[in-house]
Amino acid sequence: MLISDDLDEILSICTRIAVMFSGKITGIVHGDRADLGDIGVMMAGGANPINEN
């Protein structure tokens, strides 16, 4: 497990990324399918479905 706010580090290391906002998980994406725009929306508390497929 890695906890970081460095997106470049996260994208280069992680195979799955869980994004949290206000102590709650707002989304889970696979590292190879991660989109910086979607992650930014989730980091700001925006709605995004959890996608583990």
What do these coordinates show?
The chain is globular, with a radius of gyration of 10 Å. 9% of the residues are buried. The chain has a domain at 7-43. By secondary structure, it is α+β, with helices and mostly antiparallel strands. The protein has a two-stranded antiparallel sheet with strand order 1-2. The mean pLDDT is 86. Helix content is 28%, strand content 25%. The protein has helices at 7-13, 36-43, and strands spanning 16-21, 24-30. It starts with 6 loop residues before the first helix and ends in a 10-residue tail after the last helix. It is built from two helices and two strands.
Write the layout of secondary structure elements.
Blueprint: H1 7-13, E1 16-21, E2 24-30, H2 36-43
Mean pLDDT over the residues: 86
Query: How much β-strand is present in the residues?
Result: 15-25%
Query: What low-confidence regions span 5 or more consecutive residues with pLDDT below 50?
Result: none
Helical content class = 25-40%
Strand order of the largest sheet: 1-2
Quick one: how many beta strands?
A: 2
The gross shape turns out to be globular
Largest sheet: 2 strands, antiparallel
Class from helix and strand fractions:
alpha+beta
Q: How many individual helices?
A: 2
Quote the distance from N terminus to C terminus.
19 Å
| Cα Rg | 10 Å
SSE order, as H and E? HEEH
